[in-house]
Amino acid sequence: MEIPYIVNPRKDTGLINSKIAIWLFLASEVMLFGGFFSAYVYLRMGADYPWPERTLPVLPGLINTFILIGSSVTVVFAWVALKLGNWRQFQVYMAITVACAAIFMVLKGIEYNVKFHHQAARLNDYTVVEGHLGYEKDSEGEYSLDRHGKKIEENMIRVVAEKLTFSVKRFHAPWVNEMLSEAKRNGSEIKLAADIKAITEEGGKEEPLAKAGDPLSLELLEKIKQTQIEALEHNAALRTDALRLEWKEAKEANPGKRGWQLASDVNIDMEALKPRLLSEVSSVEFTVDPPTLLLFKPRDIKESPTSSRLRDDTVIDGAMGASPMVFHNLDAIDFQWLVMKAKEKGISPEAAIADSWLMKKSEFVREAWAWHLARNEKRQAELTKDYGFKEDGKTPKRTLTHKELYRLGWKDLGEMGVEKQQVKISGFDKIKEEFKGPNYEARGEKTFPHISIPREEIRHAAKFTPAWNTYYAIYFTITGLHGLHVIGGALVLLYYLVFGRKMFLSNPEWFANRVEVGGLFWHFVDLVWIFAFPIFYLM
Amino acid sequence: MADSIEAIHKAKKTYLLVFGALLVGTILTVLVATVPALDIGGHGFDIYDAILGLIIATTKSTLVAAIFMHLNHEKKLIYYVFFGAIFFFFAMGALFALSESSPIWDYNFYK
């Protein structure tokens, strides 16, 4: 099919069709991104926690802005080169544009990767702790690996399992296998707690499905699951048939009445149906002898001191062992939220901080906080010196922000390390930190110490992903969507670069129009970033 | 749109000027947000910084739209389409804002 008006403009609009099309598309994009930016505004206005302002690394964001602006110029120069009939120049400019897109995505990838590995935990008293978790090691000091061959973070829930109750329909086979192998390693046996008997045929007698003492196996669970599914299907069909019959009889007996008038009287006689039903076995119980230690990721388990539940509805009876979240390196101490909550209750921030779990338990935190308070005093004195007081002569015109007052970020801890412990760090390592966050190797444990937080002290924990808070949710939504636009746009431009020669030779005007349309999209991508950068990185 | 070769060469110069302006705008945005001496309003981020940041961003995006996307000399239909979308974006924002100021959020309204 030939698309009309793609080389010469239509008389009534004065435009080529593809240009109208791209502008219509861009109009829809304005609404799409506009919607998300509105969401950002309302999430920020309605946030019931201290909004993480100016929290993203500015340098990579700034470089990315330069890169996108630069690529906007090169893409328009590529189009100009086509207008002048210069293929070689077009190639150069377009190649630079695509390279810019690639660099942009690499920097974005580094930024995302840092977030995905950075852990945060909110304690019961609303203190927020940030850092990196350590990894589980076995008795020989080697890193333990999970079934995917990945290192296991020191953030596991430990349960000494005495009894396991599997949901017959929902059990997750890999977890069953893991439990089996763990039990085997610890010399434990997992055996069926009681005989399982079931009626498997209509009108039949109860027959044994499994005997008490049978070892746990996937085959056994699958067999019971199959029986359960058949029973459920059979019983549901029986009930449906019985109900249909009831309705039919009710309607025949009361021809003038409507359905809703009869509904309360239409019931299945379950007693009559009972002899025909098959046995439903919804869960099976196993004993663990001797009780064995099992480890679960926090996301997979709802832990409790005596009886925990996995995501697949398996209930594990047994005592929960010590399951601390172990920060190999602590890189931020944040009392902003705690202070917010304290003020709501009319408690003084200082008293609330002094009473927090972290201050009570960690010598390092106490020292760091004392250093922080002394530094804040100096900072405030400087502000007062520079800007003076308000008209009342007492209140300083400028005061430290909530964040400056109550948060010790990794840069602050780094500063403290340099000042107090004379930690030295090279210029290269400093620049690396601007992209990849705190450099633990260079600054060491004196600056970013080890800390272990008991599970019962943690109210919420997550990596810096949308699971952490609404700020990261909207940040990943907008920048992720923008990143997809960068990839999409770059692919189209790359297509022009690689496969455009033939079209350039046969119909240069048409090709120039194509590049112009692709370029318009690319400028729009730049336009979105022009707003995203200050909003996310600087506000 | 630049069609003659002369006009195209002239346009190239404009593009480079805009590029320079965008770089300056970006650096300015970062400076006012990071250098205390350039911080307007109170200390740290506040509404004045937000307004200034958005003004610079809007200026930059206007330059991109007007010069790179050729909106400074475009056909009427394109204006209708694009500015229509911008209008609806603000209309959507206004609807949200109206819903936020609704009396149902007023604690004392039904007392």
- What oligomerization state is this entry in? heterodimer
| Count of β-strands of chain B | 0
Uncertain residue ranges of chain A: none
* Arithmetic mean pLDDT of chain B: 88
Give the amount of beta strand of chain A, in percent: 5-15%
Quote the distance from N terminus to C terminus of chain B. Answer: 63 Å
Helix residue percentage of chain B: 55-70%
Uncertain residue ranges of chain B: none
Rg over CA atoms of chain B: 20 Å
Indicate the structural class of chain B.
Answer: mainly alpha
CATH superfamily descriptor of the largest domain in chain A: Cytochrome c oxidase, subunit III, four-helix bundle
Query: What summary fits the major beta sheet of chain A?
Result: 6 strands, antiparallel
Structural class of chain A: alpha+beta
**Helix content percent band of chain A:** 40-55%
Total beta strands of chain A = 14
Q: How does the overall form of chain B come out from the CA principal axes?
A: flat
What is the first-to-last residue Cα distance of chain A? 50 Å
Shape of chain A: extended
Mean pLDDT rating of chain A: 94
Radius of gyration of chain A: 33 Å
Topology, please?
The complex is a heterodimer of chains A (about 550) and B (about 110).
Chain A: H1 17-45, H2 58-83, H3 87-117, E1 119-123, E2 128-133, E3 157-167, H4 173-185, E4 189-192, E5 196-198, E6 207-210, H5 218-253, H6 259-262, H7 270-273, E7 283-296, E8 301-302, E9 307-310, E10 315-317, E11 325-334, H8 336-344, H9 349-354, H10 357-361, H11 363-387, H12 402-406, E12 407-408, H13 410-421, H14 427-436, H15 440-447, E13 451-453, E14 458-463, H16 470-499, H17 501-506, H18 508-538
Antiparallel strand pairs in A: 1-2, 1-14, 2-11, 3-7, 3-10, 4-7, 5-6, 8-9, 9-10, 11-12, 11-13
Helix pairs in contact in A: 1-16, 1-18, 2-3, 2-18, 3-16, 16-18
Chain B: H1 5-34, H2 47-68, H3 76-100
Helix pairs in contact in B: 1-2
